[in-house]
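Record 1 of the preview.
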Amino acid sequence: SGFSSVLVPIYLGELAPPTLRGTLGTLTQFCLVIGIFISDLLAFPFATEHSWRILFAVTVIASIVQLICYPFLIESPRWLLSRDRGSRRARRVITKLRGLRNEHEVDIEVNHFISASHAQACDKHDDHTSSGMALMTMLKDKQIRRLLICSLVLQMAQQLSGINAVFYYSTMFFEGLIDNPLLGTTIVGGVNVLATYVALLLMENSNRRTLILWSAGGMFVSSIALVLCLLGYLTKIASLFFVITYVIFFEIGLGPIPWLIVAEMFEAKYVATAMSISSQLNWACNFIVGLVFPYLQESLGALSFVPFAVVLFMTIIFVIVWLPETKGTTPSELRDDIVRSLSTMLALSGDSTNNEDHSSSVGNPIDVEWRRAMDDLRRQEEEDMQRGTFNYGFQPIEQNPVDAETDWRARVGGDTGI
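->
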């Protein structure tokens, strides 16, 4: 799970074109919640005193299916070109992924991959940047350090929002309402799948900050309502309703975006390091919530969701003040936005500004590569049209107009006797 949570978002980010990056990034979360829902369903026949061991076989079966599907996976062209700039395999993958028409277009795309990888190396003399060097560079650069902080805060907010407390201990909300606790847990899992599908539809049409604000705001209201339910001010039916809204709002924002936004904020040279750190922090917070919540519930009782509400309120403030928008933003625009924000919030000394190199892009370079490739291709086609050498898909008339007219007059004169 740890390896896949780091590698899958990076892999999809390197394969996906910019127009589908948000959707494919959300698919990771969508598949995850489908797996949780299937686990809930399997609990009905097998979560018994004599059959619970059979559930462990599900992991083996899933692993076998993944191994069978492995030959159908394609390698990341960025990784292939970083190892061998003349890789024919990378060219075949790019042709298949981008739907390019000829070798000239493929060469243009390959050149942008290579030039971007070379330009983004932390050490200009070494294309293979170590994680330690990348981390040091990220911490030294004020702009990139801010992006790293944003990434880590979102990972903490995702887990400390209390979503796993709802999943792990959801049965306490259904006591006296649903006889079978497994049914209540399965209802939450089903809502989780439907809400993630809605997020899948929203991801390419809505800003990341907007979705996170709606997500954190909705969860904040739901958590306050759950406290009122536990205090007895609202009915058990209301508690079920607010558990469902809690899950829905989580899946449209704080669920998928913290994983997705890492690949959008950082250059290729930083993505692996940033994703690794973010994943470690995410799983650590997940472990802390699962371990501490029973003691929190014992100490605070009906007020056990108040700390989660506080975290969600602080998340809203943080997103409004600090988090930059990444959807549809080029690296230069994102950098300029961060510089303007930092200039109003921090007093930067002139010496430190002069000594630092802010020439690096602080965004996902895939957008830039794609735009450059398409601009070069369009410019090349326009030049071919002006020269008359553009291939429209049919053979041009080789005879010039003067020769065609002379030939026509000769044929007409011969046929009519003129």
